Amino acid sequence: MSIPLLDLKPQYQALKDELKAVVERVMESQYFILGPEVEGLEREVADYSHCQFGIGASSGTDALLMALMAAGIQAGDEVITSPFTFFATAGCIARLGARPVFVDIDPVTFNLDPARIEAAVTPRTKAIMPVHLYGQMAEMEPIMSVAERHGLIVIEDAAQAIGAEYRGRRAGSIGHMGCFSFFPSKNLGGFGDGGMVTTNDPVLAEKLKLLRNHGMNPKYYYQVIGGNFRLDALQAAVLRVKLKHLDAWSEQRQQNAAWYGDAFAATGITVEATAVDCLSREACRPAGGGGCRLQAAGRRVILPTALPDRRHIYNQYVIRTAQRDAVIAHLVREKIGHEIYYPVPLHQQECFQYLGYREGDFPVSECAAKTTLALPIYPEAGEANIRAVAAAVAAAVRG
To answer: Residue 115 in contact with residue 88, Cβ under 8 Å?
Structure first.
């Protein structure tokens, strides 16, 4: 790629000496499972996320699974979540024998539409799992209000949102638990898999610690059936180094987003998401057998909308266009990295057909799956590259 979607090498080169030193420190200690490095990272991520407790996990997926187990989710229960997210969100619910209950998304932020949640609550509902997609938090106040009215647990899927804020409150600090991923492509990424669950509830914190180590306490005595969800000390040591730079990286991503805004504005092809009639819920439905009504926007690009009461950390920079196929073909020719997050909503995935959903049940999610495209936003991308990507997208849309 002449301009890759993500390039982790510049970040590594800048921190190489410090990273090698902490890896050496762990190797010299020969303390690889849990221990002081993991405990240190747990304290630091909890503090960063404005939470009392952090419990390291082996991956973001296992963080979600641990949180659901700690919430007591079991076979026959229902958990309300989004159909427009990474598979693990609903996959972890299904692994426990519970039923994912999907609610459509807001067409501007791609997060759960809080106005649709209460209608999905049944006597079997036990939890709500909002997803803070692409680095911008969901509308947490109304979500928490629904949860309080019905006595539900709220688990924030904050895998893409460490450091994001909603009205001054950090991701992972508003719900009963928050789940983070340290997959290498995340804003805070390790040298492999890793995750974290945050909470302000000491009882849940103790449950999470128990569950991640097979339910064992004391050694070889098992109170509950847990799993091997432990975070490696090597990953924790690497992440502690990187955490100190996270705010600077997030600010650079915000600067990159601003450069995209300027570059696209100069092309004259952009339109505000909130001003596009075809993004209304009803208009997302196919009319008379026709296709997605984003076509009504013509040869235009809709840029990400950062709401005024949020801190958007841009884990991804996702545009929308009815000309997505043409844009992708042009970006391939220009050797510019890109990705579709996500091409098929979860309710249309083969493994979830048993849930009984059909095409058209969640029109906003289905429209987003057909029209969204992620562009390079990593901190070291540089202004020249950002403007070159915008120009390439504009050329494809016009063409």
So the answer is: no
* Cα dihedral 224, 228, 229, 232 sign: positive
- Rounded to whole angstroms, the Cα distance separating 164 from 313 reads 6
Q: Measured between alpha carbons, how far is 126 from 69 in angstroms, rounded to an integer?
A: 12
**Single-letter code of the amino acid located at 359:** E
Contacts of 152 (CB under 8 A, 6+ apart): 121, 125, 126, 127, 128, 146
pLDDT digits 0-9 by tens, 199-241 = 999 999 999 999 999 999 999 999 999 999 999 999 999 999 9
Residue carrying structure tokens 């958990």: 79
Give the residue ranges of DSSP H helices in 244-336. 246-267, 324-333
The neighbour count for residue 142, using CB atoms within 10 Å, is: 15
User: Which two tokens mark 250?
Assistant: 């997030």
Q: Tens of pLDDT along 289-340?
A: 444 556 555 678 999 999 999 999 999 999 999 999 999 999 999 999 999 9
Residue 187 near residue 135 (C-beta atoms within 8 A): yes
What size, in residues, is the chain?
Answer: 399
Tokens 């235009």: give the residue.
Answer: 300
Distance (Å, whole) CA 88 – CA 355: 16
CA-to-CA distance for 306 and 135, rounded, in angstroms? 10
Using alpha carbons, list the distances in angstroms from residue 80 to 95, 98, 116, 146: 15, 11, 10, 11
Which of 296, 300, 271, 270 shows the shortest CA–CA distance to 282? 296
In three-state secondary structure terms, 17 is: helix
Nearest-CA neighbor of 35 among 238, 242, 237, 241? 237
35 C-beta neighbours (distance < 10 Å), count? 14
Is 259:304 a contact under the CB 8 Å cutoff?
no
Can you read off the two tokens belonging to residue 253?
């991503």
* CA pair distance 193, 182, nearest whole angstrom: 6
Euclidean distance between CA atoms 106 and 110, whole angstroms = 5
Q: Which residues pair with 311 in a beta bridge?
A: 165
